[in-house]
Amino acid sequence: MYQMLLSQARQPLLHHKPVLRPLMMLLSSCAGAGNGGRGGGSVEAELVLLLNQLCCALAKDPSVLELFFHTSEDQGAANFLLFSLLIPFTHQEGNVGQQAREALLLIMQLSTFNPRVATHITDNTYFCPVLATGLSGLYSSLPAKLQVYSEDWHCLERADWIQVPALVQFLNSLQFCCSVIKAGHPSIRGQLLRYIYNGFLVPVLAPALHKCTLEEVMTTTAYLDLFLRSVSEPNLLQTFLSFILLHTHDNVQLLDTLVSRVNTPFQLGTVSLALFRTLIGLFCEDVMLQLILRYLIPCTHLYLIPYLIP
């Protein structure tokens, strides 16, 4: 009924208490049911569609936000039920997950102009941790070893990864993180970047880059190369670069480990070269400093110049 009212009404209805009160009771009952009110598949679809429509209404008329967002009492996530109910569907596949993510992005855009909403999201919800741990969970589902069809294969192209459903889902989640970072308030952006670094890159990706077998290390290196090519948001890309350039694993710089593999007389060497081709192609000063300029800064190479002049 609410879906029909929201989609067909020519006048704003949410400001009217006879409409709003039953709606809030409905949302509260969904939250009280546990797991965001998730019952059967049809119930999930109906709930998320309603939440999506409500977020669209918020985007069109920001004054509606005050009807759903309450800060007079500290009730944690219950202060913004509309947002909290969407979080469990963040990583869900299919149309339900897509509608939930679209609705969440609309709220991210609202947070840019409303610091109270941003503060509520960072302080009273698990939105950013859910995104970061979701990446970790999705990564654990990726194949530990890739099927390589030729000796000259060196990187994951679209024709390769599109055939791996788990990898497609991971890339979709990574792209959603990019969208959240781009659209959200700076405080949300900063929190999410920290969680991705400390909750995914360091505890998950770093150990994966130091697996025991060459096949597993090659696969993880190819994944990292693909992630760098897929990240479209500058701040998230910088987080990945900071991980590669500065992180230390077992007292060894990760960058030094990656460089040492270029000389590996196996396919790992060519995959590592592809990774560095991607890094250099980013035209990042920090990358050039660590790979090239830091060796030139001492200027020891200039000592040989007089002896080279005839």
Describe how the helices and strands are arranged.
Layout: H1 2-8, H2 17-32, H3 41-60, H4 65-68, H5 81-84, H6 94-113, H7 115-124, H8 127-140, H9 158-161, H10 165-183, H11 186-208, H12 214-230, H13 234-246, E1 248-249, E2 252-253, H14 254-260, H15 267-281, H16 285-296, H17 305-308
Antiparallel strand pairs: 1-2
Helix pairs in contact: 1-3, 3-6, 6-7, 6-10, 8-10, 8-11, 10-11, 11-13, 12-15
Give a quick rundown of the structure.
The protein has 310 residues and is an all-alpha fold. Helices cover 67% and strands 1% of the residues.
What this model shows, in words?
The protein is mainly alpha-helical. It folds into two domains: 1-125; 126-310, no CATH class. The chain has helices spanning 2-8, 17-32, 41-60, 65-68, 81-84, 94-113, 115-124, 127-140, 158-161, 165-183, 186-208, 214-230, 234-246, 254-260, 267-281, 285-296, 305-308, and strands at residues 248-249, 252-253. Strands 1-2 form a two-stranded antiparallel sheet. Strand 1 (248-249) and strand 2 form a beta hairpin. The longest helix has 23 residues, at 186-208. The radius of gyration is 24 Å and the shape is elongated.
